Sequence to fold (770 residues):
Amino acid sequence: MKDGHQRYTELNLIAAEQAKNILMRIDTKEFIPRKTQGAEFELFLVDDTTGHPVSETIRDSIIALCEKEMQKIGADITQELGGCAVEIRTPPVEVKPGFATNVCRVVGHSFNCLAKVSQLFRVIPLGAGTLGCENIPLTTTKEKYRRVPAYHNEHRRRSASLRLGSTQTELKGAESIAATGSIHINIAATDPEEALSIANSGLAFDGLTTAIHANAPVISGAVVPYQDVRIEAWERTHDTRDPRAVVAGQSSRVGLPSDYFHSLRDYFDNVLINPILLDVPDEVALATKIGTSWWPVRMKFPNNLLLVEWRMPSAQPSARETSAAWVFLGGLAEAGRAGIVKLPEFAIVRENSWRGRRGLDRDFLVENEHGATTRVPGRVAATSMFYLAREGLRCLDALDDKAEELIVGLEKRVWSGMTPAKTLVSVIHEYQQKMPLPQAIALAQLHLQRVA
Amino acid sequence: MTHRLIFALYLTSLLNLWHTVRQNNIKTGMAMKTSIECRSRHELVWAKLEPLTVTTSPYRRPWFGWGLLSDEGLPFDAMSMVLVGRQLREELSTGVPLLSLIPDEHAISVGEDSHIISDRVDRIIREVEAIGDVIDTPVDFVLASELKCLPEYKEALREADKLIEELKEDVSPYTRLGIADDVFMARAGGIKIGWTAVTDIGSKSGRYHEPATDLLAQIVEPKMKAVYTGPGRRMDINRAKAAPYLELMSTVQRFMLTGSDCGHFQDKAQACSGQKGAYRAAVELVKSIVDTFELNIGPLNGCNSLNKAEELVNRVAL
Fold:
């Protein structure tokens, strides 16, 4: 019988061996080349009158009833960290003419199915970067959902402040992120170079993507001075860095890595350096370490596939906005695949990541044609991303009227500055005239979801 | 005995070298002043301490410390340090946040109660983070008590102790830790943002001011590099200069950025206008901070510098 420490050491070694094995298999071209994209989106289930999170039992009943219907289109629905949260995984969609229409169909069907079943329980599925209710939803009662937050609570460094800026809002601990939801796009790559190009492009777009899709200005019953506090909450509650790493300005397993990934080996080095947090079967040791590296992008290797996961945007309020986010990010990823994304200095990526959480109103850094860094308003900085998204889709003949319609919708959002976060805050202010803030937040999120 | 002789010779050569570098500093310092001056009509940087050796390892981030010996909040002058830090950070272009060292261990070393210090740590982190947000700059925090466990910090402290022993100087526990901080941070690629009461940082006046500690640290670690703002200001002709980041006396004669006596700048200025030179210097410093802010970050509401400074106080408090 091995003790816990021995087992974790063994798993870390197994993960390193598995990484080596993948590098060897990639050299012998054992991976299946694909040009498809799939998505995962997390939604909260809330009571349709109070906006409060439902119990785990109700959530699980809804999942059970949805499963069959989802399977009809090859989608999948599962539990998430939050006891009231679900994750929908779509089937892969080929990036070719009709891509945007297919995305809308898959996303629309999934949303409709979940909404219909939820209605039976007087529940509404809510798409938000953070659920703002006062008492954070409980985590799902599974060992992995208990152990990972517990590890971070135990090992968090003392100077990691859980209080958000100058506000009185204090995060409760690593469990706080049970109240966060996001959209992930999985892009299949044909070879490691392509995977790296897509992954690094994702890092380059991190800040602006967060700002464009900002949908998390609330947490723990308060409105916070962020348009998207989701990753900020993750970083603070999961900051277990050694003080040496803090002084050196190195990042943790949350937020940005310290630099672009220079090779697949470099990516694995970044993954392997952090200790494994779960006692899992040997065969998933590396996958578990990848799964607990919460950077804006990940590279995954399931079933002889090479997948790059983009994880930047918060969950969006409606099926339409979720589809738009997918098509927009999908286009950007294809631009990355095509090698037409000029990566800025990583210092700019870091800076913009910090700004992105604070919203599009901040100035962002961009490199001009002479290579000099300038500050421009967020909406101006985003212009080049819309160009690249279109070009990326055009490369695979996927820029049709539907794609254009979705991208134009996002462009309008950017130029008006009315992100879902801004809309939510304005509704909360209206509600706050009549009721206490935590209640106003819950009802405002509910109201906007109904409208969506 | 031989060791002592070698050390004395080493010290003499270092001091000679430092003297030469200091002469050069006057020139390079001027260059720095020019670069800051083009962004502000006033001068926030008073002096620089250049490294004694040309180092290949890059400087990655500016860092500063904060005082924990008082509960009064931060004086408005603290803005001068963070604004200089912001400017340096932009010049370094690493995208790494400013680093704020919270000297909890130092305060405890001079007899402060650890529970009180723990509360003050929470307060200072909250306040400095809010200031960072207002000046559009990320700030990281690290506690001195976190650093003390690192072998690299222990080594820096051991070398500081050795120097103190060799110099036979009467050095306070606070200064001892200050030397170790400087050495550790310089080796980690940090540039210190400090303050000085006089522009000639090698002068005997202000023997216990920050540059004196830094000069000792530079003997241990020649890579040590620092940039100094001027002193904070009190509207009191008997004691006009003060640390920009700490208020140990009454806050009545000082413009406060945070704490229970923050704001009320016009009232305070009126009440203290009889303090002549000290009053003028305090208002001048507020004006230079407000000007630097407006030139680098954006306009502030208000019809004069004191109104604008109050607007900054409100932004930090939000």
Q: What stands out?
A: The interface with chain A takes residues 60-61, 93-97, 99, 102, 121-122, 125-127, 129-130, 133, 136, 138, 140-143, 145-147, 149-150, 152, 184-185, 188-190, 316-318 of chain B (CB under 8 Å). Confidence is low (pLDDT under 50) at residues 5-41 of chain B.
